[in-house]
Each structure stands twice: as C-alpha cells, then as structure tokens.
Amino acid sequence: MVTEINFDGIVGPSHNYAGLSAGNLAATSNAGQLSHPRAAALEGLAKMRANLALGLTQGILLPHRRPDRDWLARLATSYDTASPLLQAQAMSASAMWAANAATVSPAMDCADGRCHLSVANLMTMAHRSHEWPETLAQLRLAFADPAFAVHGPVPAPFGDEGAANHMRLCPEHGAPGIEVFVYTLPGGPFPARQHPEASATVARRHGLDPARTLFVEQSPAAIAAGAFHNDVVAVANERVLLAHEQAFADRDGVYAELRRLMPEVEIVEVPTAEVSLADAIASYLFNAQLVTTADGPTLIVPAEARGNAAVWRWLERHRGGNGPIRRVEVVDVKQSMANGGGPACLRLRVVADPATIDPRFLVDPARLDRIAAVVQRWWPETIDPRMLGDPTLVAAIETAHDALLAALGLSGYLTGNQIG
Ligand code: SUG
Q1: Which domains are assigned to the chain?
Q2: How far is residue 362's CA from residue 148's CA, in Å, rounded to a whole number?
C-alpha cells in the first residue's frame, strides 16, 4: 500500500563543527566547537523511534565513507597531504541531512506512473558537492524496483539542493499533487543554492504536469536572515502549507496560485509580527516534520522551538482542535541543529509502497536497537575539528563505518556502483 516513508540519514561517525557552510548561521557560529558524534547519532535514532511510535513507516540512508578518499584522489591529493580545509571538506558528515539527498515526485504526479527521484548535486558547497555519487548508489539500491526511476544529478552549473527546496501538496492521501519548486536568485550576502534551471530540469525529468507545477522564488530577505534552504521557512504536507510571512518573494502570488490549483489548500501563515524571521530561523519552527498520524496532522518540532518564547506561544495558540496542526511533538536533535539541520533536514520523504523498497533500508525498533549498539560501540564520543588530521581518529571513523555496514548487511554496497 502506498504510504509516506521518511528516510532519515544516520549521523556518521565524523560529525563535526568545521563551519563549512556560509549562510548557515548555526554552522558558522558553532565553527570550532567540540562535536559529539555518538550522541548525535543516538539523537537521530531516538527521533526515528518516536516516528515509529506515531505509527509512521521509517527508512534509513547510510552515512557516507569518510574521509572521501575518491574525491581527494580526483583532486590529485590524499588525506595525509591535503590542506586542513580540504581535509574538513572530505570528512564532513553532511550526508546526514537526507532532505538534501534528492527531489522525489510520487508516482501519482509523474507521466509514466513511476515514482521519480533525482539525486541532488549540492554543488554550491564544496563539502557537499561530493555527496551525490554515494547517495546515488544508495538510491539505486534502495529503489531498484521498476516502480521507481532514479536520476543522476542535474549538470553543472545549476545548483540543486533536493527536497529542501521542494514541497508537495495534495487534496488527500494518494491523490495527484501540486509540486512546488522553490528557487533562489543570487545577489544577497549569502550563496543562492537552488538555481531555477535545476528546479525546471527536475520537473521535466520527472514528467510532471506543467499545469500542476509551480516555480516560486524564495524571498531574498529569508536567505539574508540565514534561511539557506526553503525548508527553514516553510513546510507542506497534503492540504497544509505552513509558511513564514517572509518565506517567498511574491507571497500573495504563491498563495493565489495554490488556491487556484487546489481550492482545498489550507495555508497557515506565521506573521512576522508574532514570530520574526530571526526567531523562526534560530528555533527551526518550520524545519519540522508535518506528518499525518491517526490523530491527524502532527508537527514534529525540534526542542529549540519549545525554547523560543515567541515560537512556543504561537504553537500553543495554533495547535489542537480541528485545525491544521492537531498535535505538536518535540524531538531533541541538538547535535544536528548546531550544524543547521533540524528534524526535516534529517529526512527524505518518499510516498511509495514499502514492499517495493529494499528492506535493508527500512527499520523497525529491533533494527534501530542493532544500529544503536554499533553506534554505542564504535562512534567517537567527541571530535575537535582541529584534530581532523589525526590518523587515529581517521582510522576510528573508518572502522565505525565498516561496522555499521556489516551490521546492516550492506558491506561493499558501493562495489560496481562507483561513479566519478
Ligand atoms: O547544507 N550543514 C548543512 C545543513 C543542511 C540542512 N538541510 C536542510 N535545511 N534541508 C548545510 O548547510 C554544516 C557542515 C559544516 O559546517 O561542517 C552543513 O553542511
């Protein structure tokens, strides 16, 4: 049966705060801090457990091999001889933010009746630009069934950040939807990561109906305030769009188009007067998972949203009743948050039949226990980003990764799948 499946990226053993993402205020302000990879991975696993307890179907994406020695070889260097910056870029655990793995269009929206996935090139940030070959290998394995079509990256120079800049609304579960691609234009103080041509390419490849596809510009004010992806200022699920007043460049135009295409749409706007852009971004109110549970629409927010007085006041006033947010769940993912990744960043949503997915990429509580045991045993407790060159640390990270793949029955999954 077709259902929503959230694939969370498992936080890799090299999780660290090297401050690599300009425009991502959490990451740049925490640059140089000590990270806690073991705690980070356990927080992510606890979030997945909580999702299972809500009755949701849960999947995983694997941490990538770090350091990425193949990438360094393509740059004609090796980990031992690379500069500290290249070492940090080769060591980043950024593949954990699965919302940036790919853009996904469910079968109901695609001309050929298959669910399409386009791996994101993430080319704007050096440390993320080398994720796609390993992500693609995982997607080709997890979604090998003919029910899916998995595409390679959009060619350079068109930056693509995947589902973080894409939303989907539909009148009811299982119905064809309206797909909304949110692009960015350069000119502000921070990089614009989602090129409009990348969004248009993904829509064409997926065979989306142009009459049911919107391309909208993210507001430059939001990017300048630190919203480096649309999913930091807006989230959608089924009939509901929850967005900050300053999420889109042409807010009235976006709402009018949505209402025209889908009269059932419920637009919940958070006004600047109640929650400033700064509060929205610091708390990650919008980087929430908006999911449908037996109790109705549920918003899964990070603990930082509860810690922000203005945001919590807004949530308290708008939850419950018969409204579009029946329930609010709070999860603690502070290790990921400190690098700018909230609950929604950590997951890639796929609407599909779980029976068509490689079962090694799906989890139940027992499988999560097995992963947690590997993390407890092998993940470093802390990493000081100034120590990324330490050969003992590098060996520990590689051993930890091998141990996880072995536990999941996925050792050597890249063999014969390597690209680049
Ligand atoms: O691309 N942080 C990620 C956070 C991604 C969040 N994803 C979504 N909003 N969907 C990024 O900026 C920080 C890594 C570092 O600085 O080491 C980082 O890459």
Answers
A1: 3-418 (3.75.10.20)
A2: 16
